[in-house]
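S1.2 Input.
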Amino acid sequence: SYSFCTLLATKKKIMVKYGQPITVDKDLEEVAKAEEEGYPADEMASKETLQSRMENATEYFLKAVTDDGELVGFVCGTLSAGELLEEDSMYNHDPSGKHLCIHSVVTLPKYQRQGHARANLLAYLDAVRQTPITKISLISKENLTSFYQSCGFTLLGKSPVVHGEEQWYDLVMNI
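S1.3 Output.
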């Protein structure tokens, strides 16, 4: 999907393409830098973990780019046979799993608060609906649970996953 927006800082109009495929060779460095900017050090995925997700769960790793190819953000996940996102699913991809665990929803700082995270996540969810996935889950900090609920996820409550210092919350979507 596409969207036109005006960058707040420069007032420049740009077109953004959401749900675009990603490649390790072309995108790994930029994606790793965006992950680092988007999460505290004790929560971010390592470059090696991102590379593994790109290589092993390619169809569940999509990006948003401007019309000139600049990265706006990305969404990535892996498949699991479990019922909720668990510690193990953050590092492993089960290609036969029917449950998608979303691990990162990242928008670069200069594109934040302009609707790109929502548009990119919704494009991602549209793409996922074309696969055999039956359930999607993610963990979120409390301040972002309403955002994910507005995108169609259901809040289950506190997650047992410990990832960094803050409490995480489980959210799910059946599709």
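S1.4 Remarks. The chain has a mean pLDDT of 89.
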